[in-house]
Design goal:
Elements: H1 10-26, E1 34-38, E2 44-51, H2 64-80, E3 86-97, E4 104-114, E5 119-127, E6 133-147
């Protein structure tokens, strides 16, 4: 296994991004949420997510697990745009809560920060429907031994269209 991140070439990048979007959609955990992943550029990812009362804790706002999931996913997929052969694993993640989330559409924006070898660093932030930041996170992600092409949800990029 190579320790260097393997970014897709320019012509294959968009196919890789569509395959990552397919992988996100195929994860069983995402059946629990009204969310969608969009990747438009290397090192970035954007998840739109609807918060409703099913996500609330007893105090009437979204539980912190919602913050973590969306922040981690956005940062993870931003980092995995740089790696076209291996699935990344989250090795650590720090998050900061800025404002409670009530109901509405939330956007998680992920951005790769550094690293192209074995460990990549990415950050993410959550934006509410009023355009205010409600949370932020930073994660480290490590190349795994899991081949992306071996994952059922990672659609064959050559079969995808842009």
């Amino acid at each position: 296994m190579s320790l260097t991140a393997t970014p897709p070439d320019q012509t294959g990048a968009r196919l890789h991004w569509r395959a990552l979007e397919s992988l996100y959609a195929s994860a069983p955990v995402n059946d629990l949420f009204d969310s969608a992943l969009h990747i438009d550029a290397e090192g970035t990812a954007r998840i739109t997510f609807t918060v409703d009362k099913r996500c609330f804790h007893a105090g009437g706002a979204a539980h912190g697990t919602i913050y973590f999931k969306m922040l981690d996913d956005a940062a993870f997929y931003a980092a995995n745009t740089l790696v076209s052969d291996r699935f990344l694993l989250t090795t650590s993640f720090n998050l900061h809560f800025t404002k409670p989330v009530r109901e509405g559409q939330i956007v998680a924006e992920g951005r790769w920060v550094s690293g192209r070898r074995r460990v990549l660093v990415a950050e993410s932030r959550l934006i509410d429907s009023e355009g205010e930041e409600i949370g932020r996170g930073t994660g480290t992600f490590m190349r795994s031994r899991i081949s992306l092409s071996g994952l059922e949800g990672y659609a064959n990029p050559s079969a995808l269209t842009d």
